[in-house]
Amino acid sequence: MMLTAPAAALAEALSLAATAVRGNINLAPVHLVADKGAVSFTCSGPGISIKITAIADIAEPGEVTVAANRLGGLITGFSSSSSITVNTTDNTTQISCGDSRFYLPVLPDVPAALKFDTESTGIEVAGNDLLALLEVVPAASTQTTRFFLTGLYMHSVGDELVAVATDGTRLLRAGIKADHLSTDRRFIVPSKAATALIRLVKQTKPDSVTLRRSYARFAVTGPGFEFVTALIDAKYPDYERLLPRASINVAQCKRSDLIGALARLGAVADGELPLLALSWIDGEPLRLFLPRQPGDAEDRVPAETRGSARLAMSLPQLTAMVSNFPSDRLHLEVTDADGPLMLRGERSKLGILMSCRWTFAEGEKPETEKRPAFARSGAMPNVQ
Questions:
Q1: How confident is the model at residue 372 (pLDDT cuts 50, 70, 90)?
Q2: 69: Cβ–Cβ under 8 A, 6 or more apart, which residues?
Q3: What pLDDT does 23 receive?
Q4: What is this structure's pTM?
Q5: Which architecture, in CATH terms, is 243-377?
Q6: Which of 61-65, 67-71, 105-109, 270-274 has the lowest mean pLDDT?
Q7: Separation CA 384–CA 317 (nearest Å)
Q8: What is the distance between the alpha carbons of residues 293 and 360, in angstroms, rounded to a whole number?
Q9: What are the distances in angstroms from CA 54 to CA 79, 144, 175, 323?
Q10: Domain boundaries in the chain?
Q11: Class of 2-105 per CATH?
């Protein structure tokens, strides 16, 4: 095999392929295939494979496997405008640029790339729409004991493709207009794979991508890349029955106003897990304060409000959830006296955050024994 290509193109392709083994690149091989005016880099980690293709001048087609970290170190050591030649023999790979020559051993065992196990027609969606679905992944659980929640669940609902993630305390749901892809409850994409795919799509910026799903695999292809991941072998819980009903206790405000208020309260809050109180009365602005630090901080957010609500929740969790919504305006709802809080944004975006138990001062809100919807179900316990 012999090829020549700009250092910048080779470095970017290798970097993106190595996303499959992020954190383990020192032990990872990369498989290069040169043919028909392009070179591909394929890296495979546990349950994930990424193939990236770059344009190159191919003097001799072929393939080779070398250490990803060593090849990457050599390529990034040259200026981005340099022209690099890769030439292989049976035992070595020569990397040359100008008068510089370096040699890497050929690894004897080609890593087994994850293959898509069933032919599927797939559906085409915009690259930005795929990112909108993947952005629910921060709500996924990190507890391996509930491995079926350690990813995002994708399913078709009418003319939408919907993605959901939850850890039992918070839930994020997003939908995009798309053709039918899947309706069973086993389409669960691991969080690590979703995170790698987010980086891949953000870096390549494709106008559109093709999604394919089989019983055990999920594949995404776009200009210059192929992504395949194993699905979590489990059935996703029936989250729909846990969604709170519509409420008359609603508030609408600018997202930027709410983020600013949360940041100011966070600057004053003590402790690693500060508690926030959120309340409103019909026709009045939102009131936010720190119930564990009475008198230290209070903020008002202009809002259109109906009904009334008052509940306590994690300040960091609410801040993170609000930041996940790209909408200019947010719609807040509280069905029960003690939560949960529902956030609605554009394009079917939904967020749910469990409340924390707190006995408010006299004249504010009495303590209640009623529990939030997720907690009452027994499937997703309330977290204090």
A1: very low
A2: 25, 26, 28
A3: 64
A4: 0.87
A5: Roll (3.10)
A6: 105-109
A7: 12
A8: 12
A9: 18, 37, 32, 35
A10: 2-105, 123-241, 243-377
A11: alpha beta
